[in-house]
Write a structure and sequence with these properties.
- The protein has helices at residues 15-30, 41-44, 52-58, 66-77, 94-103, 137-143, 145-161, 180-191, 205-209, and strands at 2-7, 35-40, 80-86, 110-113, 117-120, 126-132, 164-171.
- The chain is an alpha/beta fold.
- The chain has a single domain (2-209), classed as Flavodoxin domain (Rossmann fold), CATH 3.40.50.360.
- The strands form two sheets. A five-stranded parallel sheet has the order 2-1-3-6-7, with helices on both faces.
- Helix 1 packs parallel to helix 8.
- The protein is globular and about 50 Å long.
- The two termini are 24 Å apart.
- The structure holds flavin mononucleotide.
């Protein structure tokens, strides 16, 4: 079992990075022989701008640019994909959105033809989403931000490609609370990363926070 953990935060000392590290630790302990690769998009200098070469690939006029093909190969090697990011403007940072725009492209994540419609191509992939929020749970509930994030990200991106969103966690109060609880949650999440692999199960928050 192999996990690809993608973190999108410019500060390696951030809570997002610490959470990614705990998930990796947990993943290694989860199953004999398990492995984990952490991708620090900021440190690697991933270019999130969707450019002419990306558009040509999307239109099936050219192969994907080499940096995109390299990311797709990383995901192809993984049984579990974990995205760890701070919430920016009730969504993900532009760096991660650009990674998705460029990497989850027509021809690899899905096939779309006018006559045949949509073919989802990432059905074997299990995705775990971990967003770190500055605001509290009441703020998210009051404005409906949790629902809009789940609709846009979990359903709009990953369900569209056929990937199974095994967990979708929002860790609140990141700037005001002691990080210990979030770090413990992250480690538990790592240990449970490959649970139920191969079957479509519902997100189970009770297990994670027990
Ligand atoms: C540009 C920017 C936008 C932000 N927007 C939100 C937001 O919409 N909702 C929220 O809960 N927190 C927001 N925050 C707070 C971050 O989510 C918070 O600082 C971060 O998760 C703290 O964890 P870190 O140590 O990993 O940065 C924002 C922070 C920045 C820098």
């Amino acid at each position: 079992m192999h996990a690809l953990i993608v973190v999108a935060h410019p500060d390696p000392g951030s809570l997002s990075h610490a959470i990614a590290a705990r998930i990796a630790e947990g993943a290694l302990l989860s199953t004999p022989g398990a492995s984990a690769e952490t991708v620090d998009l900021a440190a690697e200098g991933f270019d999130p701008r969707f450019g002419a070469a990306d558009l040509a690939a999307y239109r099936r006029e050219a192969p994907p640019p080499p940096d995109v093909a390299a990311e797709q190969a990383r995901i192809d090697r993984a049984d579990a994909l974990v995205l760890v990011h701070p919430v920016y403007w009730w969504s993900m940072p532009g760096l991660l959105k650009g990674w998705i725009d460029r990497v989850f492209t027509n021809g690899w994540a899905f096939d779309f033809f006018e006559d045949a419609g949509l073919v989802k191509k990432l059905r074997r992939l299990r995705v775990h989403l971990v967003a770190v929020a500055g605001a509290d749970a009441r703020t998210y509930a009051r404005h409906g931000y949790l629902g809009t994030m789940r609709t846009q990200i979990d359903h709009g991106i990953f369900d569209y490609c056929g990937a199974h969103v095994a967990r979708s966690e929002l860790l609140f109060d990141a700037q005001s609370q002691d990080p210990a609880a979030h770090l413990a949650t992250a480690r538990t999440l790592g240990r449970m990363l490959f649970d139920g692999s191969g079957k479509a199960g519902a997100t189970d928050r009770a297990d994670l926070h027990a």
